[in-house]
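I am still getting used to backbone structure tokens and would like to learn alongside you. Please make up or recall a protein chain and show it to me in full. Would you write everything just below, so we can both look at the same thing?
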Amino acid sequence: MENCVKQGLAKNIGVSNFNPQQITRLLDHCKIKPVVNQVEVTPNLNQKDLIKFCKEHEIVVTGYAPLGRNAHHGTSGGPTPTMLDPKMIQIGEKYKKSAAQVVLNYLVSLGIAVVPRSVHKPHICENINIFDFTLAPADVAYLDSLNKNQRVVTMSEFSSHPPYSF
């Protein structure tokens, strides 16, 4: 990838699903530092330590699957999507927002970029309309309390690989 940057074929380098140990190993050997680390970030897996580590190294964190995987709810053994939590729905009503908008606002307040997946125009519009309210400390504390280090995307098929990051 460094050669691609040098040849003008790529502007920057990014990584995905790197933990602090992997980032450190990369930083110890690279000439061009990655500018982004794309990882799963949800209230169930808020990754605050990794986000802090990346900020200290001037690496942007982009969170994928920020709303969980609603389509797999109840079938994958993974966590319930936070936006289905009745308390989240109540919090959303308080701000005249959906639970999904509350989740996205919370995650952006952690200092990350989020990539919510949607193919429906109303949801896409809703997902961007998250910057006109600030969550109360009690609501942030509730969202913080949901962190259980539960992944939606386990990538268990790679668990036997030596640098498996999870």
Summary: The CA atoms of residues 33 and 57 lie 9 Å apart. The mean pLDDT is 89. DSSP finds seven helices and four strands in the chain.
